[in-house]
Design a protein that fits this description.
Chain B: Residues 83-297 form the ABC transmembrane type-1 domain. The structure holds 3 protein chains of 3 kinds. Chain A is an alpha/beta fold. Chain A is 44% helix and 14% strand. Chain A folds into 2 domains: 37-149 and 310-359, D-Maltodextrin-Binding Protein, domain 2, CATH 3.40.190.10; 152-309 and 371-450, Periplasmic binding protein-like II (D-Maltodextrin-Binding Protein, domain 2, 3-Layer(aba) Sandwich), CATH 3.40.190. The termini of chain A are far apart. Chain B is built from 13 helices and 2 strands; from the N terminus they run ααββααααααααααα. Chain B has a two-stranded antiparallel ribbon. Chain B starts with a helix and ends with a helix. Chain C is mainly alpha-helical. At the B-C interface, helix 1, helix 2, helix 4, helix 5 and helix 6 of B face helix 1, helix 2, helix 4, helix 5 and helix 6 of C.
């Protein structure tokens, strides 16, 4: 009896399996195949950004012959992993992919991306902010359109600053140091850093450093961190902050502890890109109304220099299928250049990269964020935060270059900082180790390396 | 045990042998497994060996480099530090875990527990939790500032930090122990349950005490299942990956580096470093090391198995 | 045909009766041992101290579940601001569950269905292959037999992570990436299942029985189906349990193979939700991650409890021993 039951179970299992399997078969295979049902061109987009999917509806209404599928493949790193996989297999790559500015050179120099200048994007220079346009413009080609930008700003918890007696927002790094001491005295840290490469890049960029360069033919790279006096200036400053225990090195950025720290005021400020507001709202909802935004502290009194932190572009993966690339370009254009598309994303929390939006009254006069339920939240206490951030975008120093293997470089930065964050080595030593590894890596990858 | 073993031997000898043509009948049943196995494991392994002989360069494309990747690996300090780490991990964590499993199995088998059913199921339950989820939950609890450890610190006025680099490996070992003790316990327990009760009866008549029964009857019985649990545990801890990689951004100060374990190193090499050829070489070397250790530890019992 | 049937049935019935007798004896003996302690050489009475010691261990095993349960009742705001084991300011379990199933157009339900499908097809298939393979290893002397297990053990020593790239490239060439097959086909291999079924078959299927069937002229396949399979049933349940857990919890394979959220299993989906908190432009939804994790493990826990009788008897019948 038991046996009969068993065979029945097995038979049933098989039947269910087959039904599912067949269903699975029928449903799959759409992916990025040339054209979908009913003569529609289907394009596949990879992005981890939450605002891009919102543009699909508006776009499809205007382009009924194109179907857009946006897939979230995880974090930025995971997307690059997946992209590398798909590119090396020559299969399964999307038509469009969200790529951060720092990763763009890597894909462009390997000839994986479509040069958009012949498709009509060459004349967009004045449309975007100089910083973002520079980033997508590589060796004379346009390899992506800017989606958003991340000019650095100082986000701070006014309540904690007030409690510590920091009534004037620090405008120079010296003032920031003094403020840090006062904030430490009331039991908080002014900010945290447990070894983040993006942060290091942004801070040295703001200090005026240009440690990396790639030759025109893409075969020679310059990696000179230890010899750059501007890098040294930042290192020395930050080392002093760490030595005096003014920075929390125990809480890794973006962890739950970090969110809790932002929530309860034990991390009192952030030096971060302009895309931060919505992350604050979702990560530290209790602190609503306490936070404010200010320009970055600078090295000289009255300085304005700034840098970018993060920010993404939308790039087109090279394909031989002409109809696909045309359709893909249409969506790219809509999401990154069309006023309606941009507005949809900005309303969803993206920080724009185009001058029109940055200048628009509606954008500049915003005083609240929309929360997940669509309600207004005066997170910055009614401050017109976009005025500050928009100004910050204008102050970005031009000319900073990323490495053609920046994804790798950032991946191993933390390894070199282990000793630094546990205070058994200096930041200088960590940077020197990083430089050495990068130079070795570049040589292995066939580059000629210059210091 | 003796009785069971001899019984198995008779069965083996009665298995068909010698008929011409019937020799291959076993493949009728082995075939499907073998076929899928070849596609899923053997071909990729061979493919990995093949690509480990090349190097892909961003400038210059893919070139044949012979054994250069292996030479580089042998001199790679990061690789060896990761190997050292998993060896330490294996030497410490596996015995602790297996001892706990064996003790729990003996306790259950002694029939002296109240609520046997509860203990059986509750100690086995962690095995049902995906590694991702368990690393996540333990990671939350470990947090020295806001986690459970943090709450305890605040309460007791201590400054314990289980995520600091010096004890981090132990913290990860604890997660693994939590996940797999029940699983191994069940394997031990089941092999203990096969001991005929009459054997105990006989021992009791001989006047053997409980500990003597454990030593003379039960522990030898565990030897067989020990072989397989040891092998699977060694392979498992040499391939440590899920827990440290999920915890990577929960642990302060980058204490979990990109080369924390050989598997993590391989992952980071191939996926963010454009060095999948080098990663393939690493995989082959690690496989060789793992096999070497597994066979060295359990060669004899495997031979018996292959009778 | 009919003779064979009758023969098979007779043999089967006899074997079943024997097994039943043995099991009944065992049970009676164990009961006696537990209640009177007559056959237990040492003190038969239950020990409070031993129970307490094991209780500590059980507490250790169950503690993270308690944490998960408590935190599944919290809102995102409460999760980041209240004590880990204490209650939140509001009881949000039902809201969380509702939100888990409605977030992103209810994709969680899709992931759940995917996972079920992978388990049914993948683990079901893995069990079948392992049963057949284990049976072959135990009951046949075929060329290459000795090599099989050595090769299997050797292959699983290769770090799976590093195999992922070759596996991915291979599957991409076959056009299987981003389809359920990429998840199912590799799940079909369970080395531990093979081992389990090998040992189990060795003991549960008497050689005489097979000989008798062969003498009757039954084909190997028929003998397997009608005689061996029923005897293997408890082992099959045990083996299925292990493959189900392995498939249900598989993380790395789908991470590499699947890039279409519509085909994600729960583990990948949950991890993607978790990653949202650590991505610029993402929304932190740890409350949903925790609640989702809880929902993910509940079906397995229920399966364990329901199948407890079977897998314990399966293992106890001598599944793993030399």
């Amino acid at each position: 009896m038991r046996f009969e039951k068993m065979t029945k179970v097995i038979a049933l299992t098989g039947a269910v399996a087959m039904a599912f399997g067949l269903a699975g078969c029928g449903g799959s295979g759409s992916g990025s195949s040339a054209s979908g049902k009913g003569g529609k061109t289907e394009i596949l987009v990879w992005s981890w950004d939450s605002t891009l999917p919102r543009t699909v509806k508006g776009f499809e209404a205007k382009n009924p012959d194109i179907k857009v599928k946006v897939t979230n493949v995880g974090t930025n790193k995971k997307e690059y992993t997946a992209l590398n996989n798909a590119l090396s297999a020559n299969k399964g790559a999307p038509d469009l992919a969200q790529v951060e500015y720092y990763a763009l050179p890597e894909y462009a120099t390997q000839d994986k991306l479509q040069d958009l200048s012949d498709m009509g994007a060459s004349g967009y220079k004045s449309f975007y902010t100089p910083g973002t346009w520079n980033s997508v413009n590589l060796n004379g080609g346009v390899y992506a359109l800017p989606m958003d930008s991340g000019p650095m700003a100082l986000f701070y918890n006014k309540e904690v600053f007030d409690k510590a007696g920091v009534t004037e927002v620090p405008t120079t790094w010296d003032e920031y140091y003094e403020a840090a001491k006062k904030i430490k005295a009331v039991g908080s840290y002014i900010t945290s850093d447990s070894g983040d490469a993006g942060f290091f890049d942004s801070m040295t960029w703001q200090a005026g450093a240009k440690p990396f360069a790639t030759s025109k033919d893409g075969k020679t790279v310059t990696i000179n961190l230890t010899g750059d006096s501007k890098v040294k200036k930042w290192d020395d400053y930050w080392q002093k902050m760490i030595n005096e225990d003014l920075i929390n090195t125990k809480i890794p950025g973006w962890s739950d502890d970090w969110n809790k720290g932002l929530n309860d005021g034990s991390i009192a400020s952030l030096l971060m890109g302009a895309w931060m507001p919505y992350n604050l709202l979702s990560g530290a909802p209790d602190a609503s109304g306490k936070w404010r935004v200010a320009q970055m502290p600078t090295w000289e009194k009255g300085g304005t220099e700034n840098s970018e932190n993060g920010g993404s572009s939308l790039a087109m993966i090279k394909t031989k299928d002409d109809s696909k690339s045309k359709a893909a370009y249409k969506f790219l254009e809509y999401a990154c250049h069309n006023a309606e598309g941009i507005k949809t994303r900005v309303d969803g929390g993206a920080f724009p990269a185009d001058n029109n939006t940055l200048k628009s009254n509606e954008f500049l006069s915003m005083t609240s964020l929309k929360d997940a339920d669509g309600k207004d939240n005066a997170y910055f206490g009614g401050q017109k935060f976009n005025e500050v951030l928009s100004q910050a975008a204008k102050n970005v120093l031009p000319g900073y270059k990323f490495l053609p293997f920046e994804v790798y470089a950032r991946g191993i930065y933390g390894d070199k900082m282990t000793a630094f964050t546990s205070k058994s080595a200096t930041l200088d030593q960590g940077i020197a180790a990083w430089q050495k590894d990068l130079q070795n890596y570049a040589k292995q990858q066939g580059y000629t390396v210059k210091e | 045990m003796a009785a069971v073993t001899s019984g198995a031997a008779t069965q083996s000898s009665s298995a068909p042998r010698g008929h011409m043509g019937s020799r291959w009948r076993g493949w009728l049943f082995m075939g499907p497994f073998a076929l899928v196995f070849v596609v899923v494991f053997v071909v990729p392994v061979l493919y990995a060996v093949w690509i480990s002989l090349f190097q892909h360069r961003m400038v210059g494309g893919t070139v044949f480099v012979g054994l250069a990747n292996y030479r580089r690996l042998l001199a790679d300090g990061q690789f060896w530090s990761s190997v050292r780490r998993v060896v330490v991990f294996t030497v410490v964590q596996v015995p602790i875990m297996l001892c706990l499993s064996a003790l729990m199995a003996l306790a259950l088998d002694s029939l002296r527990l109240h609520g046997m059913r509860f203990f059986r199921i509750s100690t086995f339950l962690p095995y049902a939790v995906p590694a991702v989820v368990s690393a996540l939950v333990w990671g939350f609890m470990y947090g020295a500032k806001y986690g459970l450890v943090g709450s305890l610190n605040a309460w007791l006025g201590t400054h314990v930090d289980v995520l600091q680099p010096s004890v981090l490996l132990a913290a990860i070992g604890n997660i693994n122990t939590w996940e797999f003790t029940g699983y191994n316990m069940l394997i031990f327990y089941s092999s203990l349950s096969t001991v005929p009760r009459s054997l105990y009866e006989a021992a009791a008549i001989d006047g053997a005490g409980e500990w003597q029964v454990v030593r003379r009857v039960k522990l030898p019985e565990l030897r067989g299942s020990l072989a397989i649990t040891v092998i699977f545990s060694i392979i498992g801890s040499f391939q440590l990956f899920n827990e440290p990689s999920v915890m990577q951004n929960m642990v302060p100060g980058n204490a979990i580096t990109t080369y924390y374990t050989p598997n993590m190193y391989a992952y980071n090499l191939s996926f963010s470093g454009n060095q999948s050829n080098y990663a393939a070489a690493l995989a082959i070397v690690m496989a060789a090391l793992t096999m070497l250790v597994a066979y060295a530890v359990q060669l004899r019992s495997m031979r018996e198995q292959m009778r | 045909m009919s003779v064979l049937d009758a023969g098979g049935r007779r043999v089967r019935a006899a074997e079943r009766a024997r097994a039943r007798r043995v099991a009944a004896d065992e049970r009676a003996e164990r009961r006696r041992a537990a209640s009177s302690g007559f056959s237990n050489p040492s003190n038969p009475r239950r020990s409070v101290w031993l129970t307490l010691a094991c209780g500590v261990f059980a507490l250790y095993c169950l503690f993270p579940f308690a944490y998960l349960l408590v935190n599944a009742t919290k809102t995102q705001a409460d999760f980041t601001s209240t004590f880990g084991l204490g209650p939140g300011r509001s009881f949000a379990l039902w809201d969380n569950i509702r939100e888990v199933f409605s977030y992103q157009d209810g994709i969680f339900a899709r992931w759940l269905a995917n996972t079920l499908m992978y388990v049914v097809v993948g683990a079901g298939g893995a069990t079948l292959l392992a049963v057949m393979g284990g049976y072959a290893l135990a009951k046949f002397r075929f060329p290459g037999r000795k090599a099989v297990f050595a090769v299997v053990l050797g292959a699983i020593s290769v770090p799976g992570i590093a195999l992922a790239v070759p596996q991915f490239l291979l599957f991409a060439k076959l056009g299987l990436t981003n389809t359920p097959w990429a998840m199912i086909v590799p799940s079909l291999i369970s080395p531990f299942g093979l081992y389990l079924m090998w040992i189990f078959s060795d003991q549960a299927v008497p050689g005489e029985l097979l000989e008798a069937a062969r003498v009757d002229g039954a084909s190997e396949w028929r003998t397997f189906r009608t005689i061996s399979l029923p005897l293997l049933a408890p082992g099959i349940v045990t083996c299925a349990l292990f493959t189900i857990v392995a498939t249900w919890n598989n993380y790395f394979l789908p991470l590499i193979m699947l890039k279409d959220a519509d085909w994600y299993p729960l583990t990948i989906g949950l991890n993607q939700w978790k990653d949202q908190a650590s991505t610029a432009g993402g929304q932190a939804i740890q409350n949903l991650v925790i609640t989702g994790s809880l929902i993910t493990i509940i079906p397995l826990v229920i399966a364990f409890l329901l199948l407890q009788k079977y897998w314990q008897s399966g293992l106890a019948a001598g599944a793993v021993k030399e």
